[in-house]
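Assemble and predict.
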Amino acid sequence: MAAEKHEWRNLFTLLKLAEMGAHRRTAKISSEYLARKLDASQQTASRYLIELDNKGWIKRTITPDGCLIKITEVGLKELKRLYSNLRFLMEAEYPPSITLEGVVFTGLGEGAYYISREPYRKQFIEKLGFDPYPGTLNLKLTTDYDVKTRSELEAYPAIEIEGFKNENRTFGPVKTYPAIIENKVKGALVLALRSHYDASVIEVIASVFLRKHLKLKDGHKVKVEVLTLP
Amino acid sequence: MAAEKHEWRNLFTLLKLAEMGAHRRTAKISSEYLARKLDASQQTASRYLIELDNKGWIKRTITPDGCLIKITEVGLKELKRLYSNLRFLMEAEYPPSITLEGVVFTGLGEGAYYISREPYRKQFIEKLGFDPYPGTLNLKLTTDYDVKTRSELEAYPAIEIEGFKNENRTFGPVKTYPAIIENKVKGALVLALRSHYDASVIEVIASVFLRKHLKLKDGHKVKVEVLTLP
DNA sequence: ATTACTACTAAACGAGTAC
DNA sequence: TGTACTCGTTTAGTAGTAA
């Protein structure tokens, strides 16, 4: 994420300069004055200004009694990025994603049956954007943290798959969340597909056969990054 | 402004933690994981976490496979402060204040006459909040920068003092801006009180006799921080 | 007044490693 | 796996000062 080391020090300096109006107009700011604002020495402030100038974040004109400083478009963009980052964080109701970790185990094989029911499958394709491999990867959550996280997740807005009934029985509604498995495969977390398992179990689907694709065996730890919806 | 040195490094770390959702919920974040996000070593990330913990910005629970981290109310407040700072900067149309510098000179002494006209005086008290000393401090702007800044200022919203007429003549409207003179005295900048002087001259008023109060003599440099209106 | 160089000091970093 | 200590190395910070 951070393009360069200590970019944030530059960002912070830029923020201070903006507080002096340098994002809107050319402001006369001496390195000594900036130094006081930064709680650093004049020399350090001077170095920072040189750094910012070299990065192209500010435009400097040195005069006998101070620098005329204006934050460039590039610099302003950096500040705006920080701003929208913060705005997103402070105003979003939920974190952008939460991560669950569980251990692979073999279920009763019913996953395939449910996943491949046509009314479900059609909705998976429509609402999740992929045609699910007929089968689920069962993960047993091993820590209190993961179980707690899973239960918090239930309060988050989900992609709702509607239930249906055929001549024989009723299939309940299902809550799904887009997810990334092992930082590699796009798929989805499926909650309450069946009630066989308790709150310490999650089921994951994807367009591929996850066990094979990720070379998973029973007992392997798997990380699932669940994406919450805006 | 900065309460402590390098507080911004802590702030930045806090921001990264928030990006992992730690501002809304307890998140499991290993120092190694944080280190990657910060582009630093695991040891450094660990140190940062200890610092944040000591500051009371986060609550940490160390478990065998990672830290459970939640940003505290105190930490969240810091992030919010940064956020509102930025919001103010990015969304305000004008910088909060701009600084002019000029050299004291003696005018024709008409300032006193204008300032003490009762309809003006009444409005100064009402709109600026002080009873002006009958006289103005004349400042000659010496650099191009200051002249340019002064002219930019004219576009900013001002406190408008209405003109009036008496039996003899007409007194024009006047634009004033609250100002702080030499970082010490609250007063106001007065533009276009008369047309005698060109754009390189400003006039300053205050409730006190500025020349005496600040021990000013002709030729002294004076700094005027002009406060722009929200 | 300024800026910013050089030379030095202080602090932060991270490799190795204990737990 | 984790965290976090020590300690040698690197980097940042500042005093003095020239321009």
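The helical segments of chain A are 7-19, 31-38, 42-55, 73-91, 110-115, 118-128, 144-153, 210-213.
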